[in-house]
């Protein structure tokens, strides 16, 4: 990751954040407990990219993709 880069991890499961925090300690990572559908509310400002690990199908995809579009 570039020195000025940052990662915002959004997950609605505290357990997933706990695993991530144990595994990745880089201070440029921000951990946000939220649903994917709320990404545009949880993340302020535009982002360069959005990556979904695997569980996008568990969300209201219409709402989630609309929220992603707002922050891109």
TrEMBL record:
Name of a matching Pfam family: Methyltransf_11
Domain Methyltransferase type: 5-72
The organism's place on the tree of life at top rank: Bacteria
InterPro entries: Methyltransf_11, SAM-dependent_MTases_sf
Gene3D superfamilies hit by this protein: Vaccinia Virus protein VP39
Name by which UniProt lists this protein: Methyltransferase type 11 domain-containing protein
